[in-house]
Specification:
Elements: H1 6-22, H2 59-71, H3 77-87, H4 92-99, H5 103-133
Helix pairs in contact: 1-2, 1-3, 3-5
């Protein structure tokens, strides 16, 4: 497999965020409704809430998401929030307000967090190469 880059890691986080949003909603167990379903007339449903259909992610995407979630354990808490906010496609303005810094500083911190993950991911491959050569 090719070595990891910051672009590939950032894309993997974006995919993980997208996969997390496509998972089924979490519901509290043990509660149920005994009332029958109300059959409404079509004109009564005009102002009702819209139904959003989510297609569940495939198992490979869930596995990649879980692997990506493991990567955040290598980061500090603030770096985790920063990386995840970028993966969720928050605008830089909101990120800067959250962290109290300007855009360039936020971008540098985000790049440093991704570089930290890249170093961790590429470390086993580099040590395996060194063992083979030496």
């Amino acid at each position: 497999m090719a070595e990891w880059t910051t672009e590939r890691v950032a894309e993997r986080f974006r995919e993980a965020a997208s996969t997390a949003h496509r998972l089924p909603p979490v519901r509290v167990q043990g509660y149920f409704n005994t009332w029958p379903a109300i059959k409404r007339m079509p004109w009564e449903n005009l102002g009702a809430e819209t139904v959003t259909y989510r297609f569940p992610p495939d198992p490979e995407a869930v596995e990649r998401m879980l692997e990506t979630m493991h990567w955040v354990s290598w980061l500090e808490l603030e770096q985790r929030h920063l990386v995840w906010m970028r993966a969720e496609r928050y605008p830089w303005k909101k990120i800067c307000c959250r962290f109290g810094c300007d855009r360039t500083t936020a971008w540098r911190r985000w790049e440093a967090a991704l570089a930290k993950i890249v170093a961790q991911l590429n470390e086993p491959a580099a040590s395996l190469r060194d063992r083979r050569c030496g």
